[in-house]
Amino acid sequence: MKLFLDTANLDEIREAHSWGIIDGVTTNPSLIAKEGGDFVSVIAEICEIVQGPVSAETVSQEAAGMIREGRLLAQVSEHVVVKVPLCREGLKATKALSDDGIPVNVTLCFSANQALLAAKAGATYISPFLGRLDDVGQDGVELIEQIVAIYAMYPALGTEVLSASVRHPRHMVQVALAGSDVATLPFKVLSKMVEHPLTESGNARFLKDWSTVPDPDVVGQVERFLAARKG
Ligand code: G3P
After folding, report:
1. Which class for 128: exposed (0-12), middle (13-18), buried (19 or more C-beta within 10 A)?
2. CA-55 nearest atom, ligand 1
3. How many of the other CB atoms lie within 10 Å of CB of 23?
4. Separation of CA 231 and ligand 1 centre (Å)
5. Residue 134: per-residue pLDDT
6. Each residue of 151-198: pLDDT tens digit?
7. What is the pLDDT of residue 160?
8. Residues near 37 by Cβ (< 8 Å), separated by ≥ 6?
9. N or C: which end of the chain has fewer CB within 10 A?
10. Which protein residue's CA is at the shortest distance from atom 3 of ligand 1?
């Protein structure tokens, strides 16, 4: 399963990337606006850091505009994935861009039927928004399960399920169990995934106990041991 970071914040991206567990990044107009930088420069910098798929969203409402923006964005970096909204114009743009060999992430997906259409249009990724479905009283994880099951029955479609609008660590377990190919998550959810109170208290206990051993200098001990063994 691939993990993408859902942010345009360069500090968060650098930090998560340094952990060695990030495969890509997704952005959207809201996330770009929140950071306040120049859209294209930010996308170029993210691509430079992650060296993996980076979703950059089109803002045109017409297919022709989406295609134009998408073709230009794809030239910013080989890592750019063009993100288009799931609507009639978005499907047309997905078809045209994917025919050009440009990877497309079809976003704002809220039904299995929409996911089926995006796949037929040639989407590389489909982004169902599970958190926003939960917000309106529907079951976001159930949608992920449906799309994974449908795509598995028709592997020739070739579209990857990218679970988006992830709100908490439990969502991550649920979409992983559902077989989602990718999940994109905010940095705060990623941080919560790392943490567990028993890990913290366990580590503190190990350190306390270690402070009672006669020689707590591991590096020094190993170096002396290796030197002695070498003769
Ligand atoms: O990037 C798209 C999606 O992940 C947005 O999430 O939390 O704004 O619903 P959210």
Report:
1. buried
2. 1
3. 16
4. 61
5. 98
6. 999 999 999 999 999 999 999 999 999 999 999 999 999 999 999 999
7. 98
8. 8
9. C
10. 165
Nearest to 21 by CA among 196, 201, 185: 185
Pocket test for ligand 1, best of 6, 106, 144, 167 (most atoms within 8 A of CB): 6
Angle at 31 between CA 123 and CA 73, to 5 degrees: 50
DSSP three-state, residue 158: coil
Residue 146 Cβ contacting ligand 1 at under 6 Å:
no
Q: Is 131 in the pocket of ligand 1 (CB under 6 A)?
A: yes
Query: By alpha-carbon position, which residue is closest to atom 8 of ligand 1?
Result: 165
SS3 at position 2: strand
CA distance 218 to 226: 12
- pLDDT tier, 71 (very low <50, low <70, confident <90, very high otherwise): very high
